[in-house]
Amino acid sequence: MTETSYSPAPLNPELSAKLRESVQGALPASIADLSALVRIPSVSWDTFDPENVVVSSKAVAALIESTGLFESVTTSRAPIEGDQLGHPAVLAKRPAKNGRPTVLLYAHHDVQPEGDEALWETLPFEPTVRGERLYGRGASDDKAGVMSHVAALRAIHEVVGDDLDLGIVVFIEGEEEFGSRSFTNFLAQHHDELAADVIVVADADNWTTSVPALTVGLRGNVTFKLTVSTLAHASHSGMMGGAVPDAMLAMVRLLASLHAEDGSVAVEGMTSREAEYPEFDEAEIRQTTGLLEGVSLIGDGPILSRMWSKPTVTVTGIDAPSVANASNTLLPTVSVRISARVAPGQPAVEAFQALKTHLESNAPFGAHLEISDVDTGNPFLVDTSGWGFAEGLAALAEGWGETPVQTGAGGSIPFISDLAEVFPEAQILVTGVEDPDTRAHSPNESQHLGVFHRSILSEALLLARLDARS
Length: 470
Description:
Elements: H1 13-38, H2 51-65, E1 73-76, E2 79-81, E3 84-85, E4 89-94, E5 102-108, E6 128-130, E7 133-135, H3 143-160, E8 167-173, H4 183-189, H5 191-194, E9 198-202, E10 213-218, E11 220-229, E12 235-236, H6 237-240, H7 247-256, H8 282-289, H9 303-308, E13 312-319, E14 329-330, E15 333-342, H10 348-361, E16 368-377, E17 380-381, H11 387-400, E18 405-409, H12 415-422, E19 427-431, E20 446-448, H13 449-467
Parallel strand pairs: 5-8, 5-9, 9-19, 10-18
Antiparallel strand pairs: 1-4, 2-3, 4-8, 6-7, 7-20, 10-17, 11-15, 11-16, 12-14, 13-15
Helix pairs in contact: 1-3, 1-13, 3-13, 11-13
């Protein structure tokens, strides 16, 4: 990454003050609109009612229409394969005038399942304010991202009105939480409508609730189902145990081979990336994750390097008899779900091949392996040298009153690589409304309302900055 040499000009103080006043005055309405979106259980996974995602898309379209900036707002579905269509996305466009650039604002309106409702302190789809946070599934990831766009657009229209020359595209996806399966086809279908000079992806973390961040590095991902088989049928564990390997024994030993003694990944061919990292206190990650007393961290090197720039391999699910249903038998077959993160700089398919080779080479007792349901997404490094990135930093600094931190992200947003491939000249800004206590994807997900306010203001200031650029 190369530091930008572009120095943004100061924003007109009167314009800045008016935007600040508009965002502040509309904040209660913005929170109410966010709450209404949270009430829609728009889970995009196959086993959930797809009509909820349709309802969500219509609600988002109405919100975008309410900004008064677009002549038409549409919902669109692209094919996944064959006749199967993806979930509806919302698309709106306002053409640029007088030589101004065009900005594409991205977020997603689908959400993760609620998980075990018993672990929630409040109902997952009933938004609840406690202290400075709004609780509910999708309250942060990523319906607050959707509303940060909507609220910023409302403010810029209220203050600038019809004098706005900036081109604006809004693209709110409906299946990000289920792998963006129709994303590539959607880009192909709407290529000309989506073309932009700057792309703002509102789906990442901030450094703290008082310090903003721009994400400059994202890990990629590899997921697949691994099945290990050793027997044609189950056998009595007392009669045959000790002579015949069961699938669970083989699986446990195979999975153990994926990591070194310190918990770091031990798969030859999965690479790491060298970089510099901000200071980070071990106590912070212990508090954020709820790491139990006496349990050590894993891996080596700076803590942030382990989360941003090194690979991971995690078992996220297992198909085997439950403890309640366990019988004294040798299991013939066991399946697990593997989720691996890929360091920036390594293609995801290369990392998958390294994993596949490792598993096949380390199968104990000659166990039979099957790898299926493979999904990959490439990592991404943001080019920080352009004027768009500099304008983003300046807008965040003014909106938050703090210098932004340039961070990596342990999570993956694979579609950003697709955007960069289709629109190679576009400058990409990965912003967000989350913070270390958001608990996205987990029970008791929440949105810090101060972060929400500052994110809206920063984006409104960014739009004003881009509108002033010829």
